[in-house]
Amino acid sequence: NSAVTITGNSNKIVQKTGSTVVTSGTGISDDISGINASATVQSGTVTLETGVTGATVTGNNNTITAKGGHSDLTINGTGDTISMQIGTLTLGNGASATLNGDINTIIETGK
User: End-to-end distance of the chain based on CA atoms, in angstroms?
Assistant: First the structure.
């Protein structure tokens, strides 16, 4: 497992299994290709490659795209827009999102 904090703008990140990334810049693009990866991004673009499970994205106003089906994503933030097919989206306490896609399972956690 690896962890990194990145400051600065317009960074492109590739995450593998078990990795953790915390960003604080703008224009962030994060490509998650491993399982159980987590990212903290604000107003960024996050892509889940086909078959990614256990991904967690924290932060507000992100655009998240899950390629292929059967992805498993947890979000902790508000204002995210997610495109997903045949996946599972878990909304952390207080999270909100717009979900576009078909045959998804949505889990809302409470307080």
Answer: 29
pLDDT digits (tens, 9 = 90+) for 6-21: 999 999 999 999 999 9
Neighbouring C-beta atoms of residue 50, cutoff 10 Å? 11
Measured CA to CA in angstroms, residue 51 lies from 21, 48, 77 at distances of: 20, 8, 23
Question: Half-sphere exposure (CA, 13 Å, Cβ side) for 14?
Answer: 2
Q: How far is CA 94 from CA 9, 59, 77, 91, 105, in A?
A: 27, 12, 7, 8, 18
CA-to-CA distance for 3 and 7, rounded, in angstroms?
14
